[in-house]
Amino acid sequence: MLSLSERWQALQERIAAACARARRDPASIAIVAVSKGVAPERIADAYALGLRDFGENYWQEARTKLDALPHDIRWHFIGHLQTNKVKYVVGRFALIQVVDRVSLLQEIQRVAIRKEVVQPVLIEVRLAEVAGRAGVALEAAHALIEETLKTPSVALHGLMGVAPYTGDERAIRATFQSLRRLYEQLPAPNRKWLSMGMSHDFEIAIEEGSTMLRLGTALFGERS
Asked: Looking at the domain assignment, is residue 175 inside a domain?
């Protein structure tokens, strides 16, 4: 079994190779270590390797980690966010990647005003029509983008998407291309992050322009 440091080294080599194929600088791509189901001690080991961005899916799991781990970690909320959990997440997460509906946007705005913060977010776009898959539909994304741009205590930093889980590389590539086209239509100040690419498809995502990868299994291994 590979150690965490060996996994991280192998990942860096694969990222560098994909960047070379795409003629991109590996330094232009942020890595979010998906720490759902990962114990704080193992997150601390990843932190010691130099990782600073970690993604959590559930507030109930994340709450103890935020207090137990170094305060310079940049936490990303990457799971479905219920409106009744927004009050815990706003101001404590560097980036909420999962804004997919106006009601969630409005609640983030309400809490951000009360806490006197500006909350950075990404709009999550649904790239696959799978039952239970989160994200705003591609054809409805423009309206949500416009609404977010008008919301003063929410800062739109880009887009996020999850490609279909398939062995069909062409299908994955096509969905990433559609998300990148939408991303390129954002105003320049709002094009900070194009978050696409996970453990099974991150090399394709790099080739298609991703600037932020969300890597869990490839880094930490399989989790129960």
From this structure: yes
Helix (H) or strand (E) holding 112: helix 102-115
Q: What is the DSSP string of 140-174?
A: GHHHHHHHHHT-TTEEEEEEEEE---SS-HHHHHH
- Which DSSP symbol is given to 139? G
Q: Give domain status of residue 224, yes or no.
A: no
**Residue 119 near residue 112 (C-beta atoms within 8 A):** yes
pLDDT along the chain (224 residues), means of 10: 95 98 97 97 98 98 96 97 98 98 98 98 88 84 98 98 92 96 98 97 98 97 80
Identity at 76, one-letter amino acid code: H
Domain span holding position 201: 4-219
CATH number at residue 161: 3.20.20.10
Its pTM surpasses 0.85: yes
Taking the CA atoms of 191, 25, 70 and 221 in sequence, report the sign of the dihedral they define. Answer: positive
- How does 167-191 read in b/e, with b if 16+ C-beta sit within 10 Å? eeeeebbebbeebbebbeebeeebb
Residue 71 covered by a domain: yes
Q: How far apart are CA 135 and CA 199, in angstroms?
A: 19
Structural domains of the chain, count: 1
